[in-house]
Amino acid sequence: MPERGAESPAARPLGQRRVARRRPRYSEEQILRVLRESAAGTADEALCAKYGVSRKMLAKWRAERGVLGPSDARRLKQLEEENRRLRSIVADLTLSNQALKLAVSKKW
Q: Which residues form the domain of 87?
């Protein structure tokens, strides 16, 4: 008997895949608070126990954010979003440019 929730991909209607997206458990402000406590000298084991995170996650947060303030973190998020949007625009323009070059290069 198959386990609950374990269905074969063929059993689902075509074009409908199950995508499980995890939402962030901690907000940016909460993560920064944990990192500030860590910088103040609180032991990693105590922080991990207090907030229910692993040491690996704590190290990942440190590597990603370093010692940022809340306004720095917000600004960084805004810049990342703007960068993503600009990259998308450049990709679209590059495709359009290539299509136009292809159309012009044909011999009439």
A: 69-108
Cβ partners under 8 Å of residue 28, min gap 6: 70, 73, 74, 77
Helical ranges in 10-108 per DSSP H: 28-39, 44-51, 55-65, 70-105
Half-sphere exposure of 100 (CA within 13 A, CB side): 6
pLDDT in tens, 61-92: 888 877 666 677 778 889 999 999 999 999 99
For the cut 80, the answer to whether the pLDDT of residue 60 exceeds it is: yes
Q: Give me the residue label for tokens 């290539």.
A: 98
**Dist CA 77 CA 5 (whole Å):** 36
- Mention every residue, 6+ apart, whose C-beta is less than 8 A from residue 38: 44, 47, 58, 62
Number of domains into which the chain is organized: 2
**Is 3 part of a structural domain of the chain?**
no
- Identify whether residues 59 and 95 lie together within a single domain: no
